[in-house]
Amino acid sequence: MSDFRPVPLEYATRLTNHGPTIMVTSRSKDGKQRNVMTAAWSTLVEFDPPRLVVVINKGAYTRSLLEESGVFAVCVPSVSFIDQVYAAGSVSGREMDKFLRFNIETVQSPELDIPVIEKGCVAWLECRLLPEPGPQERYDTCFGEVVSAAADARIFRDGLWNFTKENRALHTIHHLGGGNFVVSGEMIHAREI
């Protein structure tokens, strides 16, 4: 049984606001092709409704699939999944099914029927591609509106991350380049002054 639970959209932006490395999943319009890629550049651009932007090269296979289907998902991997994260970001999915090649299991998202990753990830957001003709045509940016989200309740509860020593295998990762990552670390809480 999965530890993932739905996340209210009002908290969806918190799933990626700390800048973790993400995995973007996509599918063709007919659902016969799918792909996964790793991305280090994503950010939130709106709260209500939650919207984000992901940098995906215009020539990438993932980009062609999400532009065809109009949907994609952002999955937030944990440190326990680092080898698959690096592998999925190092090769193209045009010639292979990276899910099969790197043993990445998926489930279908509830709203848009996108493959999302739960085993090895701690959160996912399913997104509808927003038509942004200017920036999307000129730059490697893809704007998405989050339509649903879920997270692993062992580390994300009540709209907040809960990074502890006991759940370190579930901590998110941050890419530094060249296959090097850092792990989300010790949480501290600000006091009121």
UniProtKB/TrEMBL annotation:
Cofactor(s) this protein requires: FMN
GO MF entry, a single one: FMN binding
Keywords annotated in UniProt: Flavoprotein
InterPro entries: Flavin_Rdtase-like_dom, Flavoredoxin, Split_barrel_FMN-bd
Location of the Flavin reductase like domain: 14-158
Signal peptide: none
Protein family (similarity comment): Belongs to the flavoredoxin family.
Designated name of the protein: Flavin reductase like domain-containing protein
Provenance organism: Oxalobacter paraformigenes
Lineage: Bacteria, Pseudomonadati, Pseudomonadota, Betaproteobacteria, Burkholderiales
